[in-house]
Amino acid sequence: MPDSFMTRLCFNSVVLAILLIAILLVRKLLNQQLTARIRYNLWFLFLFVLAAPFLPCSFLFPGYVFKLLRFFGGSFSPEHAGTLGAAYKTAAATEYFLQDFSVSVSRVAHPGLPTVLTGIWITGMVLMTGFHIHFSRKIRQLKRSSLPLQNKEIRELFATCMEESGVRKEIPIYSSAYISSPIAAGLWNPCIIVPINMISELSKKEIRYILLHEILHCKHKDLLVNRLMALAQIIYWFHPFVWFAFKEMRSDREIACDSSVLSLLDSESYLDYGSTLINFAEKISLFSYSAASISGSRKEIKRRILNIAGYRKESRWRVVKGRILFTVIAALVLGCIPVLSADAYTGTEYDFTAENVTTLDLSSYFKGYDGCFVLYCLNSGQYCIYNREAGTRRVSPDSTYKIYSALAALETGTITPEASLLSWDGTSYPFEAWNQDQTLDTAMKSSVNWYFTSLDEKTGLSRLKQYLDTIGYGNKDLSGGIGRYWIQSSLKISPVEQVKLLARFYQDELPFRQENIKAVKESLLLSSSNGASLYGKTGTGTVEGENVNGWFIGFVETGDETYVFATNVQGGAQANGSMAGKITLDILNDEEIYAQLP
Q1: Which helix (DSSP H) or strand (DSSP E) does residue 207 occupy?
Q2: Which residues of the chain have pLDDT under 50?
Q3: What is the pLDDT of residue 486?
Q4: What is the pLDDT of residues 337-350, one digit of tens each?
């Protein structure tokens, strides 16, 4: 959804700005403690954070703990009938209390500012992609027009520099008349291109410094980093902090490369190396190729000269200390990753860490459907789950959300337990049960959309958001708008969260008045028999006339135990609330938790 995505992108942009400020502050405060290479490496943390919003949290932090829990959690299958409760009979007709009404929604995006912003963002990426493709073509043209360096003396010097730098992979060296400063170019097969006039105008010593610098760029994979930075600039073309960060990163990279060169030289050569930089500062091309080069802006050259003037060989202790500090900083920065991960854009996964979980084998009930079943035994605190992955995946709540819409309306006084009647405005709906005045009980049983939309309008979006934040309802995203956000739109919740919320609802642990909880509970009652009561709410998501999401959530209240459940089905021709209800009742019947009459 453009609404949700742009909201998250804007939020992440603010977080990225804060992280950049933090990195700049750390560089300044710990400048004397960090080596030039470590200061440069800090920017890789920033690069990783830039990628985080487009990577799933499970990729960034694999769920080994959850896998171990599932491995040791045991299994439960229909053959274990009788272990969870006693049988209870009901004379209620399932066809009645599992009736499910839903209206189809369209995939067409709702026009608005988020959609416009998404279009602008995509347009910017297309333009930036074209810009970088143009630069890449210039580099390829430069490589094709360059000739292998013929000067035997310089080629021998280049071979010596390669050996001195510890680079074993062959790197070709070319000369060109189209550049005024040397560059390293290429991704998988890097090469070094030097100005053709450099050979005649510079001394052998100066040429050595230049070759060492470009070889070390290749050694440290700076050309690959260039491509990663280009990709990030395409995505974050609108973000001035990202542009500033990459400017600083390039400057730190050159300083780190200078320090690597200086580590290979004797102290008497430092001044000569600095003089070579100054010499090339006067020969910067007006056109800058997207490649690693010894040259740079005059301001950058000044910073590099100051670094060279103050350079001292790195002691072993400073290197070790720098690595320790880098590790600590990396741990702190990477702690922000879950906030920025792809899962956070839509809140697609719920982090469920309970240990008292038994794995169920209920696949025979879900033939033809991608579904899950979550059961929670209130007194024992035991979870029983079929398909844990789907059980923690957030999807649209559809009509099951109406439980909490009613609670919010009762809490704000929009309706009361004694006065919940709303008048039908005469609009014709596809279900006869909707075309009449409604109370909370009738609206809940017939899942009347207009009734709960009216409640939400009177409660107000800000109050609804406040309530959902307080109780922790799924991803708490109401950006889809009143009357839409819970119908295959922005609001998402997982089956596990449905069960946890219902358990709190049943135990009066939600921040709502007891009489309001009681009123909603009574509206959820489906049937009672032999001392047992079944409460529940179905939900169906229908898109373009096709059922795509089915829910049945609720609880069974017996004399000695209360079982809270949530079933979700997707992927089948009848993926609706009625099917979720049928599967649930079959499971409850076979496990002798709640049995139906034949």
Answers
A1: helix 204-219
A2: 1, 58-96, 108-111, 284-290, 345, 598
A3: 92
A4: 655 555 554 557 88
Instruction: Provide the total of helices (H) and of strands (E) in the chain, helices listed first.
Output: 24, 14
DSSP 3-state percent helix, strand, coil across the chain (nearest 5): 55, 15, 35
Would you state the pLDDT for residue 86? 33
Q: 290, 399, 479, 533: which one is catalytic?
A: 399
In the chain, what are the domain boundaries?
A: 10-73+315-346, 74-110+347-590
State phi, psi for 529 to the nearest 5 degrees: -170, 140
Residue 520 confidence (pLDDT):
97
Which CATH number among 3.40.920.10, 3.40.50.300, 3.40.50.150, 3.40.710.10 corresponds to the domain 74-110+347-590?
Answer: 3.40.710.10
* pLDDT given at position 85: 36
For tokens 């091309």, the residue is: 285
Judging by DSSP bridges, how do beta strands 382-386 and 104-105 pair with one another? Answer: unpaired
| 284: nearest Cα among 404, 361, 179 | 179
**Is 399 noted as a catalytic residue in this protein?**
yes
| Backbone angle region of 571, left / alpha / beta, with phi > 0 → left and psi within -120 to 50 → alpha | left
**Cβ–Cβ < 8 Å for 2, 115:** yes
What's the pLDDT at 15? 79
